Amino acid sequence: MRKLTFLVLALLLFAKPALSKEIVFAVDATWPPMEMIDENRQIVGYSIDYMTAAGKEAGFTPIFRNTAWDGIFAGLAAGNYDAICSSVSITEERRQAMDFSIPYHEVKQGLVVPRDSNAKSLEDLQGKTVGAQIGTTGYFAIQRVSGVNARSYDEIGLAMQDLYNGRIQGVVCDDPVAAQYALNEPRFSERLHLVAIIESDEPEYYGIAVNKGNQETLDLINAGIQAVKDKGIEDELKKKWFGL
Q: CA of 183: how far to CAs of 47, 115, 191, in Å?
């Protein structure tokens, strides 16, 4: 009996702990305060904290890989990573090519213009040029307004820089990003402001994208998101990143 007890104790002491599943997330870290690079060259932001918390709750380890937006969906299809955590709005068109988690954030489109502009809506900018990041719902929103010229950018910061320098007359992007540039970035906020929230017939939500049929990964992510919501962690993250 004593030998058996010693054997059991030895097995417990030397057994390796179970490793949680690693999930590699592609991130276009140019979308503050959702996903961005900090002064230490680390990927940070609301979405990053959210998935980190979801991983702790559901038992997976997130690994974030900075990836350019213009190739992010092709990289998922090619299997370069397991999922995309990059403020991806859930749309019916995207659902045809990939699966989505349950939503983790509701978003609207914001219009940023110079402070001396008289524009109050996208319609007021007919005949003008408005910028947005390529392939985003903000870019699609501009295209839907007749008479407004849509200009695409690889990064939203480049669009804001052109707006700041007077090369374009407006920028459309997700409202937390619009507020970050127009209200919280000292240099930009002196000359730019968030003038309107573009209303939509349907609510817009961010989700985590995975390849179709990757149910194991999707189930883990969904379990983590739900736990973050149920335990009030989501509210803490909103307060941290948005001041809400």
A: 20, 12, 10
Q: Which class in CATH covers the domain with range 19-106+205-242?
A: alpha beta
Instruction: Examine the pLDDT at 236 and tell me if it is beyond 70.
Output: yes
Paired tokens of 68: 């350019």
Provide the residue ranges of all domains of the chain, joining segments of one domain with +.
19-106+205-242, 109-198
Q: Do strands 21-27 and 83-89 pair parallel, antiparallel, or not at all (unpaired)?
A: parallel
pTM: 0.82
Tell me which fold the domain 109-198 belongs to: D-Maltodextrin-Binding Protein; domain 2 (3.40.190)
| pLDDT tens, position by position, 43-100 | 999 999 999 999 999 999 999 999 999 999 999 999 999 999 999 999 999 999 999 9
Q: For residues 4 and 9, what is the distance between their CA atoms, to the nearest angstrom?
A: 9
Q: Looking at the predicted structure, is the pLDDT value of residue 18 above 70?
A: no
Assess whether the region 19-106+205-242 and the region 109-198 belong to the same CATH fold: yes
Query: Quick one: CA dihedral 203, 99, 156, 186, positive or negative?
Result: positive
HEC string of 112-141 equals EEECCCCCCCHHHHCCCEEEEECCCHHHHH
CA triple 242-72-146, angle to 5 deg: 75
86, 27 Cβ separation under 8 angstroms = yes
